[in-house]
Amino acid sequence: MTAARRRRFPRPSLVMLPNAFTLANLFFGIFAIVSASRGQHEQASWYIVLGAFCDALDGRIARATNTGSEFGEELDSLVDAISFGLAPALMMYFAVLRHSGWDWILVFIFAAAAVMRLARFNVESAGAKKKIPWFKGLPSPAAGGTLATYYWFSQTPLYNDVFIGWPWEVIMRFLMLTLAALMISDVPFPGWPKFTFKTLHGAAAIIVLFSSLLALFFLPKHFFFPVGVGYMVTGILLAFIRTMFELPPIFSEPDDAGAEEDDLSPEGSTP
After folding, report:
1. How far apart are CA 29 and CA 16, in angstroms?
2. Is 176 within a domain?
3. pLDDT score of 88
4. Is residue 251 part of a domain?
5. Mean pLDDT per 10-residue interval, the chain, length 271 residues
6. What is the number of domains present in the chain?
7. Domain membership of residue 45 as a residue range
8. What Rg, from alpha-carbon coordinates, does the chain have?
9. C-alpha distances in angstroms, 1 versus 10, 18, 112, 204?
10. pLDDT value, residue 268
C-alpha cells in the first residue's frame, strides 16, 4: 500500500479519536446537569469547563490526523447544543433562578438561541474555510462557559466583598437574555488566530492559551467568568465603534460568515 493510500484511509482508531473527545464533551455536559440538580454547583462548573477543553481538541485532532467527516461535524453540533446550551442554562436555573413562576422560560430561550446559533453555523459554513478571524455572533461555547462559571465567581472574596448585595437574580436574567441575543446576532466577535510562532498574533494566541491553562489550575474562580464577560463586552464595543465610524462590514460575503471555527476559537469547533 502506498503512502498516499495510507493517508487517504486513516486507521480506524484514529477515525474514532476526535469523536471520542466529542462524546467526552457530551459526558461532561450531562454530568454538569446532574450535578447542578443535586446542588453541586461548583462541580458542575468544572464539568462545563472540561467539556469546553474537549470541544477545543476534537476538531484540531481531526485535522491533525486527517479524520474529519460530516458525521463528526454534525455530532459536534448536537453535543454542543447540550453542553453549551441546555446544561449552563439549567445550572443557572438550579443555582440562581426561582423554581416557581416563569424563570424556566429563560432556560428555553438560552438553549433555543444556542441551537439556532449552531444551525446557522452549519448552514453558512458548508465546509468553507474561514477567511477572516471573526465570528458572526457570540460563539456558543463562549456564551455557555460564561454562564456556567458564574457560580465559581460568586464564591470568590472579590464577589463577596464588592458585589455582595447586588440583585443577582435580576442580573442573571439580563445576562442570560443578553448572551442568547448575542449568539443569534450578526455582531462580529474576534477569534483566535492559528497557533504559530511565525506571526505575532499566533504567538500571542499561544501565550493566552498557556495563561488560560495556568488560570484553570490556580485561579479558575477568579478568571473565567470575568474574562467571558469581558469578551462579550469587547464584541459589543467593537461593533459600536465600527457603526459610529461607518467602517466597512466584516461579513461582506456569505462565505465569510462560515468558518472552521476551531481553527480560531479558544472554545473549539463550534460557533
Report:
1. 20
2. yes
3. 97
4. yes
5. 48 73 96 96 94 87 78 91 97 91 95 96 69 81 95 88 84 95 93 71 74 80 90 92 82 46 43 55
6. 1
7. 3-263
8. 19
9. 12, 25, 48, 42
10. 45
Tell me the pLDDT tens digit for each residue of 79-118: 999 999 999 999 999 999 988 889 999 999 999 999 999 9
- pTM of the full structure: 0.82
58: cell is 476534537
CATH of the domain at 209: 1.20.120.1760
**Three-class secondary structure assignment of the chain:** CCHHHHHHCCCHHHHHHHHHHHHHHHHHHHHHHHHHHCCCHHHHHHHHHHHHHHHHHHHHHHHHCCCCCHHHHHHHHHHHHHHHHHHHHHHHHHHCCCCCCCCHHHHHHHHHHHHHHHHHHHHHHCCCCCCCCEEECCCHHHHHHHHHCHHHHHCCHHHHHHHCCCCHHHHHHHHHHHHHHHHCCCCEEECCCCCCCCCHHHHHHHHHHHHHHHHHHHCHHHHHHHHHHHHHHHHHHHHHHHHHCCCCCCCCCHHHHCCCHHHCCCCCCCC
In a domain, 191, yes or no: yes
